[in-house]
Amino acid sequence: MRKSFTTTRVFLLLGCMLYLLGSPSFAFAQGGSVKGKVVSDVGEVLPGVNVLIKGSSRGTTTDADGQYTLGDVTPADVLVFSFIGYKTQELTVGNQTTLDVTLTTDMETLGEVVVVGYGTQRKIETTGSIASVKSSDLVQTPVSNVVQGLQGRVAGVQITQNSGAPGGNVSVRVRGTNSINGTSEPLYVIDGIQVANSGNITDVSPLSTINPNDIESVEVLKDASATAIYGARGSNGVVLITTKRGKSGTTRVSYEGYYGVQQVRKELDMLNAAQFAQLENDVFKSQVYADPAAEGQGVNWQDLIFRTAPIQNHQLSVNGGTDKTQLALSLNYFNQDGIIINSNFKRYSLRLNLDHKISDRVKIGTSIMGSYNINAGIPTGSQTVGDADVVTGSIVGAALGAPPTLRPYRDDGSLYPFGEQRDGRYREVTNPLGLASVKNQTDIRRLMTNIYGEATLLKGLTYRASFNADVQGNLNNYYSPLYIIATKDINANSGSAKKDNRNNLVLLHESILTYTKTLADVHTLKFTGVFATQSVQYNQNTINANGFPNDATTNELLQIANTVSTSSVRTKERLDSYMGRVNYGYKDKYFFDVTARADGSSKFGANHKYGFFPAASAAWRINEEAFMQDADFISDLKLRASFGRTGNAGAIDPYKSLSLQTTSSLTSPGGGDYQFNHGYTKGISPSGIANPDLRWEKSTQLDIGLDVSLFDDRIGFTVDVYKKDTKDLLYEKTLPLSSGYPSIITNLGGIQNKGIELSANARVIDHGDFKWNLSANFTANRNKVTDIDGGVTNERFITTYTILKVGQPLGLFKTYLFDGIYQTGETIIPGSDGRIGGTKVKDYNGDGVISSADQVITGNPNPKFIYGISTNLSYKNFDLSMFVSGSYGNDIYNVSRASFENPLGQRNLLAGAANHWTADNPNNEYASPLQGGRLPITDRFVENGSYLRCKNITLGYRLPAIKGINSARIYVSTNNLFTITKYTGYDPEVNTYAGSNTTIGVDNLVYPAARSVLGGIQVTF
């Protein structure tokens, strides 16, 4: 019986073995393999992903196509897929022979490390107010300037596109305006190279010379804790720009390109030819036009200067390397035609980032960015009200003011100057096509290099030395031809030309010593010491010429001109800096940072060459406390506070603390001319008085912030409140005539900014193939002037309609109050327009006379708040993004409207002026025509500047797998699709005075913004 049982067991065992040997699962277990493909959550294949069998050291990595094969696995094995920046995923093999995997982006991992001044920090360690923007957000909207991509994306940062021209400049204010005479633009640090931007409307932004597609990330340092490490240059905030660097692994080649078209967003309604002709008859009280109605519609000059303009961008990138050497190389071509004829911006750029590990202790590398830029500019913007410059100095103003009864071209197709039409009565206005014919081209060559070496001296102790150079050369070629001038107006000085050559060399050396130490696994200590020395050398050589025989040589043979003058400038300045920073952390719960920096500048007085800029900050991660452990829905909860002082040296040019001398000539008399033997001889005379006590502008700032993350980082928001006081403003003080000098640069004045910033983000839906992310930010800043000139002046006019006033915000509009039109029989108040049908202003103080005492504050150009909202949706291979931004509560002074509602004759007006006052039409808005008349500066031209703008909508599709192609995406994008605003001008996002701190929110014929539609492709091989 026992034997029978044993035999039965043997046969059963053999049967089971035979069955298992014949089954696929058993074959798998005996040395089977599994293969598959690993892609990202947006469908991009991922090479270099680690694939390991859990609990063992056996594994492999994916190849360039994201494919992997792993042998000798069993159904019970668990495969672990891990890749930097993505959430680790574990899958059981089971009976599968093919196992494809999609890895999800780990936002927490990607955000763990942020760039700070002279180093990096884990995000949880930051105690200051720092905002980060990803490269994908920066280039979502096609821009020539990386700062344009930041607009509306960072709380506390107000960005104004001063000009819609290609390569046009941008003004940036981080937590408000901090100076009166000086710059309020932040400091830009690009891979360690420090760059400044003037913000001036006529300048090509230096940031336009940098390809935005090369940017990896941007960090904006806002509070004193974050910016004090940059000392004398940190008062206005710091923008850290990090470019893409090489990564070890399979070499990748990528191409990205787009092409689109742009159009003006709107045109202004002007009088047609018949209406204009009737207006001319009314102005001059004669039959200038025998039959006004016969003139019809006439010429729409806006249609002639505006065009549908192409924009295109192409970039080829190579990225890869080994464990020792990594390389990132890119070539870029950008070409943007402006929506105004003959305006264009081209950029050719190259970037090379190279890192090499010589040994485990020594590493070297370089960043090289070179670009050649060509900017063809046209004259836009005016800073006068109603004067001739409005219609002669700006192509937009010339198009608005050009009589629609005139012709743009002769019968032979050549330009027809207005001075040759209708007996020359319209020679005071300019054919706008003539202004477009003026050559104004600037060639910009720029080379930015950073060479560094880094060595580990001892455990935890590293030394890094970097040598930076920013070499920039600008050549401006200008020529105003003879053919745009009426023949009878040509004289010996007609035709003007210029060659302006500017060269700037910035050299910077930084030595950085860093020591990190962990004690007892709970204390973290990091010390950073920096020595830096910077030299800035600038020279400018200009040749001006007037009076050319013809246009054959343009500005290439200046010596044939009747009058040639030259000028040259050379300056040099130096800044030496010493800085120390200590970061301390305890149990990833408490963090303390202390920073101190001393800067010495050659620009300041002998008694104040050095300034000291300290800051301290702390953070408490409340969620790490024991009493918070049951609050599982809170992923992170951090309270921050900081206080510190920063400086601003950007308000003055070199040598302003010294006693200066100047020379003059016949073209600029009044200084050092002497007369010998009945002839002038150039001389030198004193022009500036020394001030050995001249010192830095200083800002002290208090910031309190709260960072919150909820539900496993599904929802996060940040709140900051701040107060910043800036004193010792660099101010040009007028001196009495008895001193012999007109003025002196001294430290007077003060400004205060305070506000609140809110930013939030949420992964609203994160389910399978469908994902929806949403982010928003809100900023409310309030500024006021606390002192103008040491208490002597309480109020000061900057223009005829803007003021500085102690206790009030910067740039307020102060005007008369518009009170309608004087009607027949009304008594004319002395001091007013003084005629029936003329503009009436309100006698505000009731004294029976119109005087300056009747001017009141009528507008505030500072917004009550600014905001931005972006959303991103994806479903399988499709993605959709939308971004809107806006401003609320700010006013705009529409100076151009004041010019083109004035019926003074010989220039066209806005369409509403057709309803001007007459005895038969007692209109109460538009004054009656008066030859050479003027309109008073009133609140009629103060308009609501609030707006909401759809900055971008992009729809993309990621193509299915294609052999030999790692990933491919096509997309279509529209920019500035719509703008909701009550403003009547071209665009509510405007500032004619651009980088000015005191004259803001003014619209006077700037280059309008464009609406664009484009399509693009992104391919990685």
Provide structural commentary.
This protein is mainly beta and 1021 residues long. A hairpin with a 4-residue loop joins strand 20 and strand 21 (362-376). The longest helix has 21 residues, at 2-22. The protein has a 22-stranded antiparallel barrel. The chain has a 5-stranded mixed beta sheet with strand order 10-15-16-13-14. The chain is built from 11 helices and 54 strands.
- Relative helix content: under 10%
Shape: globular
Query: How many DSSP H or I helices?
Result: 11
Tell me how many strands there are: 54
Please summarize what this structure is.
The protein has 1021 residues and is mainly β. The protein has 11 helices and 54 strands.
Defining key terms:
single chain; 1021 residues; mainly beta; five-stranded mixed β-sheet; 11 helices; globular
Q: Layout of helices and strands, plus pairs?
A:
Blueprint: H1 2-22, H2 24-29, E1 32-40, E2 50-53, E3 59-61, E4 67-73, E5 78-82, E6 89-92, E7 101-103, H3 107-110, E8 113-116, E9 119-122, E10 130-134, H4 135-138, E11 157-161, E12 170-174, E13 187-190, E14 193-195, E15 215-221, H5 224-227, E16 238-243, E17 249-264, H6 273-284, H7 301-305, E18 309-321, E19 325-337, E20 344-357, E21 362-376, H8 389-392, H9 395-401, H10 432-436, E22 439-458, E23 461-480, E24 496-519, E25 523-546, E26 563-586, E27 590-601, E28 610-621, E29 634-648, E30 660-663, E31 674-676, E32 679-681, E33 684-688, E34 697-710, E35 715-727, E36 730-734, E37 743-747, E38 750-767, E39 770-787, E40 795-797, E41 802-805, E42 812-815, E43 818-821, E44 839-841, E45 856-859, E46 865-875, E47 878-888, E48 891-894, H11 895-899, E49 942-944, E50 947-958, E51 967-975, E52 979-981, E53 1002-1003, E54 1010-1020
Parallel strand pairs: 1-7, 13-16, 48-53
Antiparallel strand pairs: 1-4, 2-3, 2-5, 5-6, 8-9, 10-15, 11-12, 13-14, 15-16, 17-18, 17-54, 18-19, 19-20, 20-21, 21-22, 22-23, 23-24, 24-25, 25-26, 26-27, 27-28, 28-29, 29-34, 30-33, 31-32, 34-35, 35-38, 36-37, 38-39, 39-46, 40-41, 41-42, 42-45, 43-44, 46-47, 47-50, 48-49, 50-51, 50-52, 51-54
